[in-house]
Amino acid sequence: MAPVLRSSVASLALLVAVAGAPPPAAADGPKGLLETIHRHVTLTSTIPDNADLNPYAVVVAPVSAGRIQKDDVLVDNFNNVSNLQGTGGSIIDYNPATRKTTLFAKLPQHLPQCPGGIGLSTAMTMLKSGWVIVGSAPSTDGTTRTKGDGCLLVLDPNGQLAAAWTGPDINFPWGNMATVDNGDSAAIFVSMAGFDIPGPEVLDPVTHYPVVINKSKVVRFDLAIEDGKPPEIRNRTVVADGFGARADKDVFLIGPTGLALTPEGTLYVSDAVENRIVAIDNAVTRTDSAGTGRPVVKDGLMQRPLAMALTPEGHLLACNAKNGQVVEIDPVAGKQLYAQWIDADQAQSPPGNGDLFGIAMRPDGRGFYYVEDDVNTLVEATP
């Protein structure tokens, strides 16, 4: 697919800040990244040869290894050709230099090593050693009624399965991973959102929505990496717990999704059920759980925040689930700065509702990649 420039005014417009003030004048200089973003270019289809659908995770390769070139963009799919959620097993590789898209990995839907099978989620990362780690949040009928516990899968840089991690602390690896990578060791943070989640037909008698289960957690996996060998888990630490999650007949599951880690070791978590972002202090070194963490921002421009990315200025970009906007947040000041329409598909109400999920910064920090689930594409946002 050749790159396509989207020129829709709606997709490029900046919204006002929460306080109601307009964006500052250009002469004052940009206060955030979104002010500088004016181009949205469709790069490629994310549908591979097996016709998997519903792109979720977006990861930029930190190194060249195997079939992957540095700065390639990896995208996985959550749905299979029948469009059932929790059944997709493919990862595509887009090379920005050549503009070519190839299939990186294709996993069978039924994998005995992974409880419940395969449904690749937003939990994906690539390590400097070349290994790719991706979460499976599987189902057999496209709902949580038939969910399995899932697993974390380790793939070599040629897309071959090397290991599957399971255990009592691994249940529906869901949100985008945050990673600390030292080469011969690493730590990955994964939100687990599946503990005791029933099917979407189990309703709360008060709200009449699917019941909320407050058992989701964020787990830090400390990894050891020897030359030529797959990573091994040396320690598992629950750094946050008590987040709500619930089934949903349309979007499968609502739970903690976005994870973004600062160089100082603060982990930000998007809590979709509570429509807020919280901070977990000392996430890299802590040996206990911070519970649901320290409040950062809530409501405002956010409409069920999903995956997040950290800008060079230390701001957060959070994709909205309930409209086609991405929101920029200054987490230190506790302020939501702007929202920008990046998916204004009028087929949904509000426009872009349910279309966004994964997001990742470009290597130069001047833009970002994201996926549009409605049309199964990878898009690049730049100045």
What's the short version?
1% of the residues lie in helices and 43% in strands. The protein is an all-beta fold and 383 residues long. The strands form six sheets. A five-stranded antiparallel β-sheet has the order 1-2-26-25-24, with no helix packed on it.
Describe the structure.
With 383 residues, the protein is an all-beta fold. The protein has a single domain, classed as TolB, C-terminal domain (Neuraminidase, 6 Propeller). Helix content is 1%, strand content 43%. It contains 1 helix and 26 strands. The protein has one helix spanning 9-12; strands spanning 4-6, 39-45, 53-60, 73-79, 90-95, 100-106, 120-126, 132-136, 151-155, 161-165, 178-181, 185-192, 213-224, 232-248, 252-254, 256-261, 267-271, 276-280, 294-298, 305-310, 316-320, 325-330, 335-341, 356-361, 368-372, 377-382. Strands 1-2-26-25-24 form a 5-stranded antiparallel sheet, with no helix packed on it. The radius of gyration is 19 Å and the shape is globular. Residues 7-27 have low confidence and may be disordered.
- Note the beta-strand portion: 35-45%
Show unreliable segments: 7-27
| CATH C-level category | Mainly Beta
Total of helices: 1
Question: How are the secondary structure elements laid out?
Answer:
Elements: E1 4-6, H1 9-12, E2 39-45, E3 53-60, E4 73-79, E5 90-95, E6 100-106, E7 120-126, E8 132-136, E9 151-155, E10 161-165, E11 178-181, E12 185-192, E13 213-224, E14 232-248, E15 252-254, E16 256-261, E17 267-271, E18 276-280, E19 294-298, E20 305-310, E21 316-320, E22 325-330, E23 335-341, E24 356-361, E25 368-372, E26 377-382
Antiparallel strand pairs: 1-2, 2-26, 3-4, 4-5, 5-6, 7-8, 8-9, 9-10, 11-12, 12-13, 13-14, 14-15, 16-17, 17-18, 18-19, 20-21, 21-22, 22-23, 24-25, 25-26
